Each structure stands twice: as structure tokens, then as C-alpha cells.
Amino acid sequence: MTRFAELWEAAGNPTLQRVAMATEARMKATRTPVQSHRSLMQRISDWRTGRNVPSRFESLDPVLVTLISLARQASGPLPAPLSNRSAWRHLWKAASTQPVRPTVLTSLRRDVPTFVGRDVEVNRILDAAEPGRVVAIHTVDGMPGVGKTALVTRAAHLLADSFPDGRFFVELNTHTPGQAPADPAEVLATLLTGLGIAPSHIPDSLDARRDLWRDRVAAKRVLLILDDARDHDHIEPLLPTGSECLTLITSRRRLIALDSALPLPLDTLDPDTAKDLFCRLAQRNPQGDDLAAVAEIVQLCGYLPLAIVLLAGRIAHHPVWTLTGLAEQFRAAQDRLGELDAGQRAVRAAFTASYESLPPGRQRLFRTLGLHPGTDFDAYAVAALNDIPLAEARTELDALYTDHLIEETTPGRYCLHDLVREYARALAAPLSDGTATVRRLLDYYLSTAAAADQWLTRRPDSTDDPHASDLTGAVLPEFGNETHALAWLRVERTNLLACLEYTAEHDPARMIALTEALAELLEREGPWPTALRLHQRAAEAAEHLGDHLSRANALTNLSIAQWRTGQYDQRTDLMGQALALYREIGHPLGEANALRNLGIAQWRNGNHDQAAELLRQALILYQDTGYRLGEANTLASLGGVRRDNGDYEQAAHLFQQVLTLHREIGHRLGEASALGFLGSVRRYTGDYGQAADLLLRAATLFQEIGYRLGEANAVSNLGLVRRDTGDYGQAADLIHQALNQFREIGDRIGEAINLNNLATVCRETGDHEQATGLSRQALTLFRETGYRLGEAEALANLATVCRETGNHEQAADLSRQALALFRDIGYRVKEAEALNNTAKALLAAGEPGEALTMFTHALRVARDIDSRIQQARAMEGTARCRAALGDAATASTNLRHAIDLYRRLGASETDAATTYLAVLEAPPRRV
Fold first, then answer.
1. pLDDT at 501
2. Is 511:500 a contact under the CB 8 Å cutoff?
3. Cα distance between residue 179 and residue 184, in whole Å
4. Strands, E, within 391-521: which ranges?
5. Domain 436-586, CATH number (from 3.90.1150.10, 1.25.40.10, 3.90.25.10, 1.10.10.60)
6. What is the pLDDT of residue 507?
7. Cα separation of 253 and 251, whole Å?
8. Which H, E and C letters describe 677-698, residue by residue?
9. TPR repeats span which residues (predicted)?
10. How many other β-carbons are positioned within 10 Å of the β-carbon of residue 626?
11. What are the mean pLDDT values of the chain's consecutive 10-residue runs (927 residues total)?
């Protein structure tokens, strides 16, 4: 909303109160419904600061008109981009269609445009949601199909503007056929993940998750819908306790035990409203005998909205049908729901009447929908399920949608109402080819998931047949880039997990393959405890089937999930098991992958020599198997090891090999990454001109490819180069640009890293207050996402700010906190760096003796892991401590060693250390 801020400034920066009052007056004059003054002021304040883009342009328009009017009074003619409301609408549309972010603020169902009646119930909910309300929980109970969900959805859309912090719709699935009622603990995990909480920070117990959820929304204005609740115990852990929160609950039961809630029983429609609903949807204006026919139809429907909608939808598309004829047909079919209570028999009659009116081919397609393990579907899935062309599937779905036998959840995606699904499954049960039908669907999901995974994975596949090719012959969605592939996986995630559960019981081999195809998605987005369970199950099933290759792959994926959850020892043990299996079955590519993963684990633990040896073994295997991408990735890992131990020239040489390999195999993404690696090395050696050139080339290539994450990283690193050269203005601009890119793509870790980088720029330009604020923002984000390495970096940055502002005691404390985190993570390179930084804080605090001990410890760790840059820094630190303690001779010796190492590394610290040596060895002045 940058342009919104520009318009505000053009209007003379009026007060929030003035804009709100003028907008209210304008809305009253045009008879536009006016929300509460407090709510309007909050929304305008949000828009002014770039938060909470309104869900409808009509909500923003009155405020725009007010500001445009004020701007014309203040400054005369306005530029077209600020005064043109059509341009504002285009801008709003673009802002409201930004890529999906990990933080989910709205998950409401689509509103029903033909919603009629229920005015009393809707107004009761709206009135109860006004400021100053006493009851914050409302239950809507009633029989299946009575319209509970439609009612709360309509109310939620009307209330959406009053709850800018979140509008969440949770399907509890108590009466969803084929699914167990939603586990409150799993629901809380999903809600917390949607709020941006990292999977690693989600507690294990139900009570702890409940407390964390309530804490996160306590001071926010959140609207929560819990749909199809079982009982009080089912929903109690999900209920927020904040005074500004509102919860709407639907249930087929009266939730008597929920004594803090205001119940709203929902009955069937009254006869007149039911007839009105039917006639509107059927597009008929009955006269004479038809009036009696309509009355009979809605009576046979039991005045149940769901049944009325189905019948009216059918007749609307058959203009030659008569209302009396439909009434006769419906009357003859009304006894077919013998398993349901009398009031619900008409639902089955409506389903049957609609079903029997379908052509035979469409009847069969409808029956197969009952075999789908998941909750929604698109034309691709239906084409695979029925072995028909994609165009035919789209036509059939559109016809079923027109007949109201399926519901459209989003454009191109459909679902069955729970009662309709039950009906379809009953029809599908006698199908002789049901198993083959489901297998076609499973193979479609498996093939497409594997194809999508090829765009996501950064590690070569170790299976001989990863189901990457189409097993069904059906048309698969095409993915032009990683963004498209990830979007498909996210949309289909629920279905894919449902297929996993189905195959776990019916087809373990397919379960193992599908789990493998989802490994990268689970690694990226978690929840990691779920990933652990799924990979563990796949490993056990593979062992039971005697499939050693699949077991090795599952163990590899399990080890990665354990690394994500901080179980480092278990990860190494599992990788060792996987390595042994790959060797036992003679699978060199899998062996290479396992060696590389083990090498990376040792690298992160600071065991550089062991890491390098494992990576070299992997490299030989990749070269022997001809897998050049694996070869390039391993060389990149070796380069990272050399860079971290200060061997910058060797690192640069390795990254140059990586660059050459990626160019030879035409891997542009790898080429761009290699340019970025080279740029980082040149930055460490102080060759800032070449570093900037390499990073700019990387950013440009990432932009051409359309890989926004890589572009953001390259821009961020380019900003760091500008900072290193003292061009703080451009550094801040570039880091701000990267920060905005990370926010747009929803990468909260990247956002936090760049907040911390920006804090460094502010610190180095003397703005310590701003630096502190930015580092604390970064620290909060790192803790929320569970990125402990970043948390330690932010603490180290805060410690430096404290040291530079003279708060040496706090600097030492923060440095120790960072050190403890690095040690706990097992990242020994950073441990050595933190030891040096803590020692610097102690030296600055006037504690050279304690600082000397810390520098000595840092030197020992740096030597253990062969990090020569940290060795040089520790030696320089010991020299400064010796000088402070009066031992100038030893200080001079230590400093000379440090300078010699700095020079061999080409490090940027060489000049400063040399200058200090000259001061140290300068003869005393004569008095």
C-alpha cells in the first residue's frame, strides 16, 4: 500500500480521526452501511501502514474518495495514479492476489449468493459481534443439511472487516464419511503453522498446543469457525479466550456442556421461505396448479435447504420439465433413505432423483467420486479416476456442478457435501472394478507428486523408478517452474495425505512410493512430527516387504526430518544405516547420496576433515555413475567446507568447477547458485568489486529463470558487499529490496535474516537505536520459526551493539547466549566465532584475563575444526589481551602469527592488524 501512503501525504497528512469521520459522513450520505467508528479507524490505520489488504474493493473505496477530496483541497490537481479510482482498483486487485504466504489470515468458505431467509439468525450473530459483547462463543446446531455452514459463512463474510487479524474456518469432519473426526491436537498444529509458528516450535501435548494457540491470539481480533463439532470435549481446546475473538460453532448436536456459549438452534426453513428459495433457483414463477406442486416439492424435501437446492438446480436446466411432473417423480422416490430419520428421507430422494436424471456415463462418473479417498478434486483427478480425456472430465464436472451434486470450492476445484459423498459411496460399493479405479487415481497422484517433486528437490533421486513417469496414461498437470509445482502440492496436500492413509491400509508399496514423493514438501513445510511418523511408517513397511532400496530411501528422509527437529545424533545413525543398505544392494547413486548427507552432517558439526573425506568419496561415486548434478552439488558442499575453514582460494576453485559443470549440463539454476557462491567467497577475501559483479550476475540469472528466492538471496548478499565497502546508502536500499522480496514470497527466515543485516548497516552508521529494534524484530521471527542458527546470529548482533554503546556487561551476556546456542546446535564454526566475539566483549569490558581465557578456547576450537580465519582472529585477540596485561613481547609474537595467517587467507582484517602491530612495536616517545 505504498501508493496509499503517498495519497495520505498528498492530502496533507490528516489525522486518522479526521479521515474516519469524513468517511463515515460520506457513507451515511450515500446510505452505505457504516461499520463501527473504532473498527473503521483500525482498518484505515492498517491500510496506511501497509497491512491487511481489504477483501473487497468496496471497503476501501469510501476512504479513497475522502483522501482524494482532501488532497485536492490541500494541493490542487493530483497525478493520475493517485486520483484515478480505476487505477486504484487494479492496484487493489494486484495486491489481493499476491502469492500465498505461510501466514494464513483467511480460510473462509465461499459465500453463497442465493442465500435467502435466516435474516433473524444472521442479525442475531451480527448484533452479538458488536463491540462490548459479553458472549464470545456462539453455537449453531441443527440437523444435517439444514444450512448451518451456509449461515455461519454468510455471517463470517459480513463480519470479515471487523476481524482483520484472522478469519479461520476449521472443518472438524465429525460426520464426514470415511474420515475420523479431526484430532484437536492436529487442528491446533495446523492453526499454529498457519500463524507462522515453525513446526519445530509446536509442542507435543494437546494442553501445550492449546495454551500456545490462546497466547498467540489473546490480544488479536480473530474470527474462528469450528464446523461440524462432535461435542464439548472436541472443541474446548480450540476455543480462544481473548476478549476480541469471536467463535462460531456448528454441530449436529446441541452442545449443552458448553455453558459459556450462546446457542442458536437452526430449524428447517419455514414453508414460504422454502418455496421462495426453490423458485429463485429453479427460475420459475409458478401459477395455478404449479403453486401446489412447489409446496409439495419443498414439503417432500422436509424444507431442508440442501434437498431444495438440488431439485431446483435440476429443473432450472430443463425448461421443458413441469413442476407437477417433478413433484410426481420425487414423491415416488421418497422412501429410499431408509437408514435415515423421517425428516431426512427426502434428502436421499433428492439425491436419487438427481442421480437418475443423469446420462449413464455421468452416473458412473458420479459413483466413482465416492471412491475418492480425499475431500476435493479437480478435472485431472476425475479424468484419471474414470480413464477419460481431460476435456470430458471438465464437461462432466461442470454438468454435475450445474445439477448441484457437487460444490465448487475454488475455481476448477470441487467437493461433495458430506451427505452427497455418503450417497455416492453407497452407490460405488457394488462396483466390480472399484479397486482398479482407485489405483488409477492413486497412480495419478503419485506420478504428479513425483513430477512436482523434481522441481523442488535439491538432492538427486536415489530410486531406480521413482514413479516420476505417468503410470496411468492420464494427462498430468504441467509445471513450468518450482513455484507452480509447489502450489500444486500445497493445494493437493490434504488429498495426498488422505491417499497415504488409504494406501497404508490397502497398498503398502504405493504408500512407500508416495511418501518418498512427498519427502521434499514435508521437509520444507512440515509439520515435522508428521514427517517423522510418515517416513518411519514407510521404513517399517519397506522392511516388511523386503524392499531394501525403499527402506534406505525412507531412512534417508527420516534422518532429514530428525535433523529438522534437532535430533542430530539420530540423524547420523540413520544415515549410517541407509549407507549400509545402499552398499548391500549395490546401489552406487544411493550410496553417494548417503555419503554426501553424512559429509554435510559432519560439516555442520565442524568436523571439516571428516566431512571433506566423506564428500570426496561421494564425489567419486557421482563421477563413476555419470550423475553430473550430484557431482556439482558435492563440489559445492566441499567448497562450503573450505570456505568455512578459511581456505578461500580453494573454495573459489571448487565453486568455479561447480559453475562450469552447471553450464555444461545446462542447469541455469545451479549456474546462478554457483555465481552466488563465488561472490560470497570473493566478499570474504575483500575482493568486493568482483563479489558485486558475481552477485549481480547471479541475481539477474535468477530473475530470468523466475526463481524469486534465489534472486532475493543474491540481492541480499549484494547489499552486504556494499556494506563492506562503506556504501551504506546502497547497502540499505538493496537489503530493503531483498527484505520486501522475502516478505512477498512468504519466506519468514529470509525476512528475519535481512532484518538482522539491516540492523548491521544501522549499527555501522551509528544508529544504534534502530539497529537494536531491527535485531530484536529479527530475533522474534527467528524464535517463532524455530531457526536457532538465526536466533544465535541475532543475539550476536545485539551483543555487538551493546559493546559499541558501552554496555559491556550486557554485551558479554548476549554473546554467551549466542555461544550456548551455537554449541547446542553443534555448529562448531559458529562456536569458534562466538567464542571470539564473547572474548571481545570481555576485553572491552576491562576483563583482559577472562577474555584471554576465552580467546584461547576459541583458538583451540578453531584448530580442531581447521577454521584458519577464526584461528587468526583468536590469535589477534590473545595479542590484544597480552598487551592489556603488560606482556608486549608475547603480544607482538601472537599478532605477527595472526597477520601472517590473515595475509595467506587474503582476509580483510590484515590492514587493521598490521596497523595495531606498528603501534604495539613503536618505540616509546621521549619526554
1. 94
2. yes
3. 14
4. 407-410, 413-415
5. 1.25.40.10
6. 93
7. 5
8. HHHHHHHHCCCHHHHHHHHHHH
9. 592-625, 632-665
10. 9
11. 77 84 83 66 69 70 85 79 82 66 73 81 83 76 79 91 89 74 89 80 86 88 90 90 89 78 84 89 84 86 77 80 82 46 49 78 94 94 95 93 80 84 84 85 95 72 44 78 84 94 93 94 77 94 95 92 67 87 93 90 77 91 86 83 74 78 74 76 71 78 73 80 80 90 79 91 91 93 79 90 88 90 78 89 89 93 82 93 92 92 80 88 67
Cell numbers placing 674:
554457483
For the domain bounded by 119-265, which CATH number is listed?
3.40.50.300
With contact defined as beta carbons under 8 Å apart, do 277 and 301 qualify? Answer: no
* Grid coordinates of 243: 476478549
Residue identified by cell 530473475 is 703
In the numeric block, the cell 475431500 is attached to: 375
Instruction: State the pLDDT at residue 419.
Output: 67
Sequence ranges of the domains in the chain:
2-96, 119-265, 271-356, 360-431, 436-586, 827-927
Residue 153 confidence (pLDDT): 92
Written as nine digits, the cell of 26 is 460520506
Beta sheet of 413-415, edge-to-edge order = 376-377, 413-415, 407-410
Amino acid at 559: S
Determine the Cα–Cα distance for residues 241 and 218; give it in Å rounded to an integer: 6
Rounded Cα gap, residues 719 and 129, in angstroms: 48
Strand partners, 223: 167, 246
Peptide bond into 527 cis (omega under 30): yes
- Residue with C-alpha cell 527484505? 739
> DSSP labels for 196-245?
T--GGGS-SSHHHHHHHHHHHHTTS--EEEEEEE--HHHHGGG----TT-
Three cell numbers written together for 798: 545485539
Residues 6+ apart with CB under 8 A from 186: none
- Distance of alpha carbon 667 from alpha carbon 685, whole angstroms: 27
pLDDT of 877 reads: 94
What is the model's pLDDT at position 177?
Answer: 55
Q: 3-state class of 110 per DSSP?
A: coil
Contact call for residues 615 and 631 (beta carbons, < 8 A)? no
Tell me what pLDDT residue 497 has: 94
> 475454488: which residue's cell?
410
Sign of CA pseudo-dihedral 848, 852, 854, 859: positive
pLDDT recorded at residue 46: 63
Q: Which CATH class is domain 360-431?
A: mainly alpha
Q: Can you give 695-730 as a three-state secondary structure string?
A: HHHHHHHHHHHCCHHHHHHHHHHHHHHHHHCCCHHH
Q: Where are the alpha helices (DSSP H) in 218-288?
A: 232-235, 271-282
Distance in angstroms (rounded) separating the CA atoms of residues 840 and 115: 69
What would the grid cell of residue 812 be? 558479554
